[in-house]
Amino acid sequence: MRDRSRSPIRIKRESPESRGSHRRESYGREHLVRVKKELGARPIRIDSRGRPYKDEDRPRSKKSGSAIVIGNDVSSGSHSIEPEKENFEPSGLLATETNTRNGVVMKYTPPPESRMSPVSWRLYVFKPDPEDPKNTQVLKTIMLDKHEYYLIGCDQRVADIQLFHPTISKQHAVIQHRLQDNKRVRPYMIDLESTNGSFINGERIEKSRYYELK
What we know:
The chain is α+β, with helices and mostly antiparallel strands. It contains 2 helices and 13 strands; from the N terminus they run αββαβββββββββββ. This is FHA domain containing protein.
């Protein structure tokens, strides 16, 4: 026998449109709550031992120690972080880097009047006859028209004109094309403070001084 004292339970069928709208509304509220929580997040504060502060034991006074702040809040802490000041003093590293060749620091730096020669100069390498010093033989002809200067030495990494002799230094001397006051480009020779020195027509030249080649 059916008990009529209880109220009948009625099940209402829900339409697909209403189910979709309900889901959208619930998703919207959850999304808003999550965004609100993310926007209301506080920066993490860490004590001197690297442990994060809790809300109840976080120091309230500005004088009670310093705190490292991770985030945008940099006002806390007794020690202020000073930004590194800009230093415009020359360090010399750029000059050293630009004055190198194949990893070797060059002893010579070309002057401002260094130019390419419009005239083709030649350097002849002679070999004297041991029996007759006046009789010489041309071993090699070097053209001096491809560069502004030519480094003479025994270091194969940097020398443009390589001479292998016990009296030749690694960076011995330089033949430099220079622009003169009369707008002419002439070759000069300079000794790079070599051990045994450089000679022009049998006479030893001074170190670190230009001598015109005629």
